[in-house]
Write a structure and sequence with these properties.
With 340 residues, the chain is mainly beta. It has 2 helices and 12 strands. The protein has a single domain, classed as Beta Barrel (Porin), CATH 2.40.160. β6 and β7 form a beta hairpin.
């Protein structure tokens, strides 16, 4: 379990910035106009196309939900050629667009940890289960391979350009974004007592490192959409830059069993040490979404898509607190949209 840190002020700063941005843009938030023009007829028939065959983009409040099945890259320090592991997540998009062709958009998403580990079963020189000095089976040792989880939230100001004669709509946007990525690394080793050799005890050593990356910064992007009948094709491209506030908590434990010269049972010894570090890193990267939706009514649609997010540098993972590497998530999304 990740160890919480006291440095939650980046989250506070993010919330303050979001509030300040909203406060400074009151003249861009005509909620009264939105509620007056939105009739809440979710299952109304599709809009009649224009004379050129195109369908005008929706206005008013919208909401989308996507289930995410994505790969997460393994830490670069694990192997010379790290791979990736698949996991599940959720993504929520909601906001509104006014008749004046500008609005606000918010995205919240989280990705759970793949929780991938390598397991080693301890055996003796004869291939039998390894026993400790008490006569108990040592069992399995576990080393983590990929154990990270991600949460993100963003707020964007969106401007809609006029629909082209080919039915395409472009929406440039800019905003603020906060991402938290927690990484856990664990190693276990077992040293066997061998009478007459230098090893004087059974020793189970466990090392764990908990890394928290709290990234906050700005982004800009462009959303393109094309509507033809019931089919809606869209793509989004984002570029972002963050300041990453990192915390590392490292815990080392060692459990020793030493032979006792005067007692039948071995002596037990437990040692625990902790250390913590903080640092800052610059992070940049981008995100690409490609989606296709099929509308069942004027506002209800089912969609599938592809999402690729790349943090090009500055993400801390593993034992070395100086480590700074990339993080890639790439996978599929599928969900529903309301008035998007």
């Amino acid at each position: 379990m990740l160890i919480p840190t006291k440095k939650s002020w980046p989250v506070t700063v993010a919330l303050v910035l979001l509030s300040a941005a909203a406060a400074r843009a009151q003249h861009y938030q005509p909620f009264d106009d939105v509620t007056r023009t939105y009739d809440m007829q979710v299952f109304a028939p599709n809009v009649v196309p224009e004379l050129d065959g195109t369908v005008p983009p929706n206005e008013g409040v919208y909401f989308t939900y996507d289930r995410v099945y994505t790969s997460m890259s393994q830490p670069g320090h694990e192997t010379l050629a790290p791979g990736s592991d698949f996991t599940w997540g959720h993504r929520y998009d909601f906001g509104y667009m006014t008749e004046e062709q500008h609005g606000w958009a918010m995205t919240v998403w989280d990705v759970s940890s793949p929780r991938v580990s390598s397991v080693r079963t301890m055996v003796d020189r004869n291939g039998d289960p390894q026993l400790d000095l008490r006569g108990g089976v040592v069992g399995q040792l576990k080393d983590s391979v990929n154990d990270g989880k991600l949460f993100g939230i963003e707020l964007n100001k969106v401007f809609r350009m006029n629909t082209t004669d080919k039915g395409r709509t472009f929406e440039p946007f800019l905003g603020v974004r906060y991402v938290k990525f927690d990484d856990r690394t664990m190693r276990q080793t077992f040293t066997v007592f061998d009478e007459g050799l230098a090893t004087e005890n059974d020793s189970l050593a466990t090392s764990q490192a908990f890394r928290r990356n709290e990234m906050i910064g700005g982004q800009l992007g462009l959303r393109a959409q094309s509507r033809r009948g019931r089919l809606v094709l869209s793509s989004e491209l984002r570029a972002f830059a963050f300041q990453n506030f990192q915390d590392q908590n490292r815990i080392n434990t060692e459990e020793n069993l030493r032979p006792s010269p005067i007692a039948p049972d071995p002596r037990h010894e437990f040692i625990r040490t902790e250390s913590s570090y903080t640092k800052r890193e610059f992070v940049f990267g981008g995100e690409l979404r490609v989606e296709a939706a099929f509308e069942f009514s004027r506002e209800i649609a089912a969609r599938v898509g592809l999402d690729v997010t790349e943090f090009a540098r500055g993400v801390g993972r593993g034992f070395d607190y100086e480590n700074s590497e990339s993080l890639t998530l790439a996978g599929l999304t599928f969900g529903v949209t309301v008035n998007r």
